[in-house]
Amino acid sequence: MDKLAAANKINEFLRAVVTNGGLHLRYRITVDPPLPENRDWERPEILVDLSGPDSALLLDRGGELLRALELLALEMLRLPSGEHEKISFDCQNQRSLRLEELRMAASVAAEKVRRTGVPYHFAPMSSRERRILHLALRDQADLKTESAGVGPERGVVVYPKDYKPLVNPRPMVRRR
């Protein structure tokens, strides 16, 4: 991916969206942004930071519009899904706040699984958010995580390390 060409395309796209959408937003596009060392959940090559009076619109409903703009930019650039983490959109530090929320949820789920011995199923979420949960729990030797579900219904399940699902060896047959 030519990062400068991609950044220019994102700029053209956002200029059209902001202007034609009548949005009161500013944005800054940074190629190869500096990131903290401990930020292994994502290392974007292009960071788009939006701000302004209409920021609340981007962040409403869990950042739905912000994620939609990011997805449209990814589609416009025709990036394969394995490269989606190279582009990141943020507004009012929403990404860091969501990261902290996911890490806290992972901690709560881990304690619940340890206490009950029952798997914990997270609600469906994006591949990036699933990855954050997997990374948050990777050092828990007594637990394991798996992604489960298909498409937009895919979520994370936290299991005790030695969990064996109950399997009925003989199917029940109804007799009349």
Could you explain the architecture of this structure?
- With 176 residues, the protein is of the alpha+beta class.
- Helices cover 43% and strands 18% of the residues.
- It is built from 4 helices and 6 strands; from the N terminus they run αββαβαβαββ.
- A 3-stranded mixed sheet has the order 1-2-3, covered by helices on one side.
- Strand 5 (143-148) and strand 6 form a beta hairpin.
- Helix 1 (3-20) packs across helix 2.
- The longest helix is centred in the middle third of the chain and has 23 residues, at 55-77.
- It is elongated, with a radius of gyration of 20 Å.
Shape: elongated
CA(first)-CA(last) distance:
66 Å
The counted number of beta strands is 6
What structural category characterises the helix and strand content?
alpha+beta
Low-confidence stretches: none
Report on the biggest sheet: 3 strands, mixed
Spatial strand arrangement across the major sheet: 1-2-3
Portion in beta strands: 15-25%
Work out the radius of gyration.
20 Å
Total of helices: 4
The average pLDDT value, as a whole number, equals 87
Task: Describe the protein's topology.
Blueprint: H1 3-20, E1 26-31, E2 46-51, H2 55-77, E3 87-91, H3 94-116, E4 120-121, H4 127-137, E5 143-148, E6 155-160
Parallel strand pairs: 2-3
Antiparallel strand pairs: 1-2, 4-6, 5-6
